[in-house]
Amino acid sequence: GQQLNQSPQSMFIQEGEDVSMNCTSSSIFNTWLWYKQDPGEGPVLLIALYKAGELTSNGRLTAQFGITRKDSFLNISASIPSDVGIYFCAGPTNRGSNYKLTFGKGTLLTVNP
Amino acid sequence: NAGVTQTPKFRVLKTGQSMTLLCAQDMNHEYMYWYRQDPGMGLRLIHYSVGEGTTAKGEVPDGYNVSRLKKQNFLLGLESAAPSQTSVYFCASSEPRDRDSYEQYFGPGTRLTVT
Questions:
Q1: A39 touches chain B (CB under 8 A)
Q2: Residue A96 pLDDT > 80, yes or no?
Q3: Which residues of chain B are within 8 Å of residue A97 when distances are taken between CB atoms?
Q4: Model confidence over A9-50: pLDDT tens digits?
Q5: Closest Cα to residue A111, out of A77, A86, A75, A84?
C-alpha cells in the first residue's frame, strides 16, 4: 500500500526558532493535508493543498505542495510553546469515492521556552 | 456545533471482555471513519462508512466490528478484547464535495487499555 515518509521524526527547538518538516510519497498525490495533534487531543486540520506548487499559509504556518506531486513541506515561523505537538501529513489512499486518507507517522515537535 | 464527539474518553478492559465505542457527529457528514493510534505508528484505519447502513474494512479491521444505523453515529465494537487492542481510538468524519472531500474532522479520542 501507499506509504508516507515524514521527517524528521522529532525536533527539539528553542522558542522563536523556525521549523521545517517534510513528507514524501512513493506515488503522486492530488491532495496534501497537514494536521496537528495536541497532547491528549484529536488531530486538527491545519492546511489543505490541492495543486502542485501551491503555497498556502495559516498564520505562522506555511505549507507547500511539491512540484513533483510526491512531496509536501510544512514550515512554522517564530515558534512558540503552544506549537508543541505531533504534526501529521496525509494524502488520499487511492482514487475513488471513499475518500480514505493515508497518514505519515508524524513529527513530534518540542519547543523549549 | 460540537463537531465529532466520542464516548467514553477512557476505558480499561480485561482480556476477553467486550465493549462498544460511540462516535457522534453533528455536521451531517456522509462519511465516517475509525482509526487507532499507537506510538510511532501514526493513524491506521480500522473501518469506515460511506453512508448510513454501509460499512467497509480499512487497513487493520481484525478483532473489530462496526455499525452505522444512523447517519450521525458510528459504533466500533470489540467482541473479545485483547492486549494488542490497547490503543487510542479516533473517530473522524468528512463530507464528499468537490476538491475538499478528503478533509476529515476528528473527535477527541478514546484511550483503551486491555489488561
A1: no
A2: no
A3: 50, 96
A4: 999 999 999 999 999 998 888 899 999 999 999 999 999 999
A5: A84
Query: What pLDDT score does B24 carry?
Result: 98
Question: What pLDDT sits at residue A95?
Answer: 66
Low-confidence ranges of chain B (pLDDT < 70): 99-100
Are the beta carbons of A42 and B99 separated by less than 8 Å? no
SS (H, E, C) chain B: CCCEEEECCEEEECCCCCEEEEEEECCCCCEEEEEEEECCCEEEEEEEECCCCCCEECCCCCCCEEECCCCCEEEEEECCCCHHHCEEEEEEEECCCHHHHHCCEECCCEEEEEC
Q: Which amino acid is at A4?
A: L
What residues form DSSP beta bridges with A21? A74
- Cβ contact (<8 Å) for B43 and A103? yes
Residue A83, classed as helix, strand or coil, is helix
